[in-house]
Design goal:
Blueprint (H helix, E strand, L loop, with lengths): L11 H7 L2 H19 L5 H23 L6 E2 L17 E2 L20 E3 L9 E3 L17 H6 L3 E2 L4 H5 L11 H9 L3
Antiparallel strand pairs: 1-2, 3-4, 4-5
Helix pairs in contact: 1-2
Length: 189
């Protein structure tokens, strides 16, 4: 839906009035609602009908596509753009039955990535998740630990202050810098 208002398409007039992307859609829908509440009529009725039909047709097409997808999706360990096989097939995992292909949702298997919601009024109330897990080491218990959150569309605590972050720390390792190491070896600290 976010790419449905575009110049050089049947929605060009609406795109020129309201803009494109999510912001254009929101502005269009808010304007239409305000106009309808005020006059009991929709603005740009013909163009809006074309736009709504276009969005519904695209949605129906993707629903049919997704419903017919019955094969299990496998997350290949250390997947690559070249399509080479997994470097460690024992670390491959069956993915949950998520069929959303839009990268604009946290349920997407194609566009999943780190998601963080920062509460600016209380940074320690922030939330996050990283599918399928927060570790890339298949031996780690955190390799596949975010999948249940992913399927449920939920998040985990992700505080941002040092004090609150330390409450979740499982281990701490201090790395020395090359400069400190050089100074230590030369005996001058």
């Amino acid at each position: 839906m976010h790419r449905s208002l575009r110049p050089n398409t049947v929605t060009a007039l609406l795109a020129s009035k309201y803009g494109g992307g999510h912001a254009g859609n929101i502005f269009l829908l808010r304007s239409a609602l305000e106009e309808f509440e005020r006059t009991q009529k929709l603005p740009d009725e013909e163009e809006m009908a074309v736009w709504v039909n276009q969005v519904l047709e695209a949605s129906a097409g993707s629903l049919q596509e997704n419903v017919s997808q019955t094969r299990k999706v496998v997350m290949v360990y250390q997947t690559n753009l070249e399509g080479l096989p997994s470097i460690y097939p024992d670390a491959n995992r069956n993915m949950p039955d998520l069929v959303t292909t839009s990268g604009n949702t946290i349920w997407s298997q194609l566009g999943n990535s780190y998601t963080q919601i920062v509460d600016l009024s209380n940074i320690d109330n922030s939330r996050a998740f990283l599918p399928p897990g927060v570790s890339e080491d298949p031996r780690s218990p955190h390799f596949f630990d975010q999948v249940e959150l992913w399927v449920a569309g939920e998040t985990r605590p992700a505080p941002l202050s040092r004090e609150e972050v330390m409450k979740y720390a499982e281990s701490i390792e201090t790395l020395s810098s090359a400069l400190n190491e050089t100074m230590r070896q030369s005996g001058s600290e």
